[in-house]
Amino acid sequence: MNWLMLIGAGLxxxxxxxxxxxxxxxTKPLPSIITAVLIAISVYLLGQAVKTxxxxxxxxxxxxxxxxxxxxxxxxxxxxxxSPARLACIGLxxxxxxxxxxxxxx
Length: 106
Fold this sequence. Notes:
Layout: H1 2-23, H2 29-49, H3 55-78, H4 84-102
Helix pairs in contact: 1-2, 1-3, 3-4
């Protein structure tokens, strides 16, 4: 269950990061409110997940999911660069997420 909360928190991070774009620097009320709610839920789920998961691993995975997802959404929805170098860097982040999950704690 904690892994599902962590993954959910990471997915919500993607949406609140995109929400910041739509809030226009928190000057548009509705996107700003939605973004703030998504931030609160994402951080709450992360907090619940770290009750039993190691904080360093959980935080790294949370931010990694958010980073990778936000970059992909930026490419798809905002026409941001999808250069080979940029995609290679995203690949490295994915490898880091997998490594954090698979490596032993000790």
